[in-house]
Amino acid sequence: MASAGPRSASGATAGRAAPPWPRRARAAPTPQHSYAYLLGLYLGDGCLSRVGDPAKGVWSLRIMCADAWPGLIRECVDAQRAIRPANKVRIVPKQGCREVNSYSKHWPHLLPQHGPGRKHHRAIALHDWQREIVAAHPGWFVRGLIHSDGYRGVNHVRRTLPGGVRYYSYPRYLFKNESADILALCGEALDLLGVAWRHNKRNEISVARREAVALLDVFVGPKY
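-> structure tokens emitted (224 positions)
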């Protein structure tokens, strides 16, 4: 299912303009697949907040990971460490989850979608260099989105037919987010992968066709 995705950041008119990738950093962040995954995690369930003296300009990237999925916690740690290898990555226990965070002055440049308020209350648009990375690594981007704000499980259906009640089950993926812009970015990436999808709710994307689920399993798979 195609989607008219959000405009690039250069064409956005709503919300505060996000800072571009610094000119002194001529190359995009690497490894690019790790960045695509981390961007998905951030857009799904991450935030930036100032730490310490505001004059020093240090920010914390904070991503919440459920205790039920220790493998996803490790992947989040690995992604933050890959993008900012000189910075310490911390795992802070919370009730039912872990906060994975890392401090850096560069996070607002690496994640320029940061802004005041909740993501679904402001425009979310990727800069051109981010769109190039996502286009090159859409599977990693979708993996990050689903790991943070998605689900792969089994849908159980009960149908009443003329011959009686029939029960059947099938696997599916769901990605839920209140931001229409982030949903559109997810849909664009799924289109690049050739994965069929649809909106089953206003704020949710569903991948349920057998061949689409099998294809997405190559890039995402069950949480672990």
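The chain is about 35% helix and 25% strand.
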